[in-house]
Amino acid sequence: MKGIILAGGMGTRLLPLTRVTNKHLLPVGRYPMIFYPLHTLAKCGIRDIMIVSGRGHAGHFLELLGSGNQFGVRLSYALQEDAGGIAQALGLCEDFADNEKVAVILGDNIYQDNFKDDADKFKLQERGAKIFLKKVQDPCRFGVPEIADGKIARIEEKPQNPKSPYAVSGLYFYDNRVWEVIKKLKPSGRGELEITDVNNFYIEDDSMKFAVVRGWWTDAGTFDSLLQANILVSKEKQELNF
Q1: Which of 5, 39, 114, 158 has the greatest CB tally within 10 Å of its CB?
Q2: For residue range 25-79, what is the model confidence (pLDDT) as tens digits?
């Protein structure tokens, strides 16, 4: 199983902080933001990881993280030329994945939980996908699942009237069919290839599983959530031991 960190985008919601650097290089506690998703994947036992970044600051990731040796992983890098959505960025990683299952994490998502058991079980699955939900106060900011009879019936992206209090967090496990799914996607109204459409494929295929995140989780893509991330990490006094 290989790992992918999606760290592209323009970070416009964090201007002017992101005028001279990538959002995922901003500090959260004692570490650059990108260290946290890297740590999450490393704790899953994943050693081959690709980082997808956008134009302008790609070299900064390479200078900071290098080959990954200091973290006990092997890092590869890809460039997302234009901000075409999460699924479009993921599609750049097909050759890297080399037909293996993948664990995909958004570069601004920070978790308290350890997902190694989930990853180990997913490796044994023949096919399918898995997502991780968290109950939140503002689900309309996220993809929101409609849950019926213990299964996800559908995910709606940023709904005005959410059908549940849960958000789809930014960690996804996929089998090797994900690349063909992405190739068949059409841009949404935002002009992007949506990861929600990828997840809905697996739901319709009846091969989507989910778990609820037990500990805290936050993204760090807005000023409010970046502050929240710093508060949570500071309380945790978390040492990122790779």
Answers
A1: 5
A2: 999 999 999 999 999 999 999 999 999 998 888 889 999 999 999 999 999 999 9
Residues forming a β-bridge with 105: 5, 171
**CB 194 within 8 Å of CB 157:** yes
The CATH code of the domain at 2-129+170-191+217-236 is: 3.90.550.10
pTM surpassing 0.90? yes
Count other Cβ atoms within 10 Å, centred on residue 145: 26
Of 68, 66, 77, the closest CA to residue 47 belongs to 68
Strand bridging mode 2-7 / 48-54? parallel
Residues 6+ apart with CB under 8 A from 194: 85, 86, 87, 157, 185, 188
Q: CA–CA separation, 60 vs 57, rounded Å? A: 5
Three-class SS state of 61: helix
Decide if 34 contacts 7 (C-beta within 8 A): yes
Residue 136's identity, in one-letter code, is: V
